[in-house]
Design a protein that fits this description.
By secondary structure, the chain is mainly α. Strands 3-1-2-4-5 form a five-stranded mixed sheet, sandwiched between helices. A hairpin with a 4-residue loop joins strand 1 and strand 2. The longest helix has about 40 residues. The protein is globular and about 65 Å long. The N and C termini lie far apart (about 110 Å). The relative contact order is 0.13.
């Protein structure tokens, strides 16, 4: 009787073990199939709805969380742009012996939004005033709500936005690794002509006239009047082109940011940008950035742009008519990396041999 009781107890223990093992296996199978189907259920970051409660993915995680079946046309477009930059950088490094590391001075154009974990490299004459306004709204802790209520002069005050160069080396590396990095580019010669028109043909830009205009007139204008050398207010585009292509200008130091190359301002071969927006598709690309950051849920929108005086390809062609073939070739060489990296074709109006 006692032996039979012991047998029954042992069988009961075995049954419990078997039951526990089966239950555990069943739970594992549930988790396995849930993990298989989870990517399909995951929210597409390029759709406006969704986001962005506490503990959800940040903008960088949202961008790279998609599977191949989830790729939208926008995601594929930005992937192609990243690959284009990488290819140009590899080709450039293969043909160049220059090797360097980033310095704090290289990071002054990179602005940080800690709230949404964004890093934006601003490029003058590529909607940078409006982007700075948006960054002030994003990182302002409620101080600003409408980008267009921020005066342009206030948007350009350095103290209103924090540059990446202000952080320690460790903090810089952590942000470069964990924040979504983006920039906006523009057809190089349209941007160049836009900078010329803004800085040299408008009367109120007297600081540029005095700093650069007087120097250009003195160097490149024969029989310049005393008034022209004093004010520097009537620089022609041909004279401006001669200034840019003069080796003496290159020896004086970096070009002014308004006509410096994007390649030199943002260092895309040393910093991996996750998104490359274009001036030509400004609204769509800006919305992509804001959606990834979850900012659209807070009502943040990029300002609409419909300026009738915007520099166009036809306008750029008109300005280049008065530039010699030699200078056109030199200007193209100066901005060649921007053309190649960002997939802009060589303008038809250029006289290249």
């Amino acid at each position: 009787m006692k032996q039979t009781l012991l047998e029954l107890m042992r069988m009961s223990r075995i049954c419990r073990m078997v039951l526990a093992t089966c239950l555990g296996s069943f739970i594992l199978v549930i988790f396995y199939f849930q993990s298989m189907f989870q990517p399909v259920m995951r929210r597409n970051p390029f759709v406006a709805e969704g986001c962005c409660g506490k503990g959800s993915r940040n903008a960088l995680e949202e961008l790279y969380s998609q599977t191949q079946t989830e790729f939208t046309s926008a995601a594929l477009l930005h992937q192609a742009r990243r690959e284009r930059v990488s290819d140009a950088c590899r080709a450039h490094s293969a043909s160049s012996r220059q090797r360097r590391v980033l310095t704090p001075a290289d990071l002054r154009h990179l602005l940080v939004d800690e709230t949404h974990r964004l890093i934006y490299c601003y490029v003058p004459k590529v909607a940078c005033t409006n982007w700075k306004r948006v960054m002030m709204v994003l990182s302002g802790d409620g101080k600003y709500s409408d980008p267009m209520q921020i005066p342009p002069s206030e948007a350009h005050v350095p103290a209103n936005l924090r540059a990446l160069s202000q952080y320690s080396i460790g903090e810089i590396n952590r942000r470069l690794k964990g924040y979504l990095k983006f920039l906006f580019v523009r057809e190089p010669f349209e941007r160049l002509v836009s900078a010329y028109r803004n800085k040299f043909t408008l009367r109120y830009n007297t600081s540029f006239h005095r700093r650069y205009g007087t120097k250009i007139v003195r160097r490149y204008r024969q029989n310049a009047t005393d008034e022209a050398m004093r004010s520097g207010a009537d620089v022609s585009f041909r004279e401006f082109a001669e200034y840019l292509t003069d080796p003496a200008t290159q020896r004086e130091g970096p070009l002014n940011e308004h006509w410096q190359t994007v390649h030199s301002l943002c260092h895309p071969c040393l910093i991996h940008y996750d998104l490359v927006g274009k001036y030509e598709t400004l609204e769509e690309d800006a919305n992509t950035v804001l959606q990834l950051a979850g900012a659209t849920n807070d009502g943040v929108r990029f300002p609409s742009y419909s300026k009738s005086t915007r520099t166009t390809d036809q306008m750029a062609a008109m300005f280049f008519r008065n530039v010699s073939t030699r200078q056109q070739q030199q200007l193209y060489q100066l901005y060649k990396m921007d053309f190649l990296m960002y997939n802009y074709s060589t303008p038809n109006y250029l006289k290249l041999e």
